[in-house]
Amino acid sequence: xxxxxxxxxxxxxxxxxxxxxxxxxxxxxxxxxxxxxxxxxxxxxxxxxxxxxxxxxxxxxxxxxxxxxxxxxxxxxxxxxxxxxxxxxxxxxxxxxxxxxxxxxxxxxxxxxxxxxxxxxxxxxxxxxxxxxxxxxxxxxxxxxxxxxxxxxxxxxxxxxxxxxxxxxxxxxxxxxxxxxxxxxxxxxxxxxxxxxxxxxxxxxxxxxxxxxxxxxxxxxxxxxxxxxxxxxxxxxxxxxxxxxxxxxxxxxxxxxxxxxxxxxxxxxxxxxxxxxxxxxxxxxxxxxxxxxxxxxxxxxxxxxxxxxxxxxxxxxxxxxxxxxxxxxxxxxxxxxxxxxxxxxxxxxxxxxxxxxxxxxxxxxxxxxxxxxxxxxxxxxxxxxxxxxxxxxxxxxxxxxxxxxxxxxxxxxxxxxxxxxxxxxxxxxxxxxxxxxxxxxxxxxxxxxxxxxxxxxxxxxxxxxxxxxxxxxxxxxxxxxxxxxxxxxxxxxxxxxxxxxxxxxxxxxxxxxxxxxxxxxxxxxxxxxxxxxxxxxxxxx
Length: 541
Hints:
By secondary structure, this protein is an alpha+beta fold. The chain contains 14 helices and 22 strands. β5 (93-98) and β6 (104-109) form a beta hairpin.
């Protein structure tokens, strides 16, 4: 297995920082006319196909992608979760309470929980985990606003911040909020290969680039869960192979983002169910641009690229017309969306901008990076043709996902195909856009466009620090305006073709409940979504 490391990066993959407040239309779209089941059944085995292997299973040391959350999340749980409306809710934490300024948060740890190794969950273990995350080169940047952690009693941790942070709990709903036992904090290598947590399943087996197997945790703290006895996560990188294996009965569920899979399996309603991510949980498909290196350091070139992009043609060609064009990181059904100002498709305007730049600097050319996946390459070649029509010469360089991400982080690129922005609160995108996280080419930068824009950063700060909803909405309207003006990303569409397709016997996808009894967020992640597994069950056992 290619296990790669990059110091000082954050939840890359993810591009899925969960965060937010306000109502969200995130109920899963499920198509099935299979007979209604009488209720969850205990027992059974699930074989679940993933698009890629994990980089490791230690949340302190390993970069997490959507597939990492699928596998590791069965074993290791977070302090915070997110409900179906996109609001944060305590999970391993019993409560999180801010002071009046929102620059201190008090975490009360839920009692009666133990790790699968028998160690009880306590405040000092939570404190040790958070301190490890703050020290980790991987996640330190995300923890930068945190000044200190204090154990105020055996089950309570106070987090002291450098500034107000109203959306802070969402940081604890992802990798940075995953809690492992003390042994995993000292033996990092073992924790990366054999994870231990408080979750509904226990690690059984891992074969790199092939499979991971987990079994039921008999001492799980939520009574009656999980329903399944065992889950095998099978690694099948090729999209077509996953679909064929599902149809042949080799796996019970797959993740996909192909519109043809949605159409094909969606038509077989008695045999399969289709679950699609919606609302803020949907990531955006785009091209990530390096604004710190020529020729894309010239905003006129970036605007020309946006004007030359016929998004409707891309959507018809790649998505079967199923998606909506994107003009920013949030879709029109988001309460944070602000309309207007994105460069529309206008080949004449794009060509005029190119000629203007060429008159000053000469011909415009750059390299575009893509993964070798055929579907991805089709979109990249479409973009190449559209930009060439405007007078921009584009060559394509293929790279595997790990290399592509590493090149983006270090600035060793001009443009690359990209999928991002599925946070449940816009503050979840802070580190990807704020100029404080934009480092020079060659240095590791979470702001991978390396755009330094005072107005954009000031708006992100206002959105982070103000508890007033109207102030936050105005701030994020400014964020969208600056992104449309400066064009660090060429947005294409909201990727709601990301879906989980399952055989009809698989029940409970996107229907889990939180410890409070409230419905949890059904699906999230990009480009293929993920979800919890503790409340999945198989009918007909």
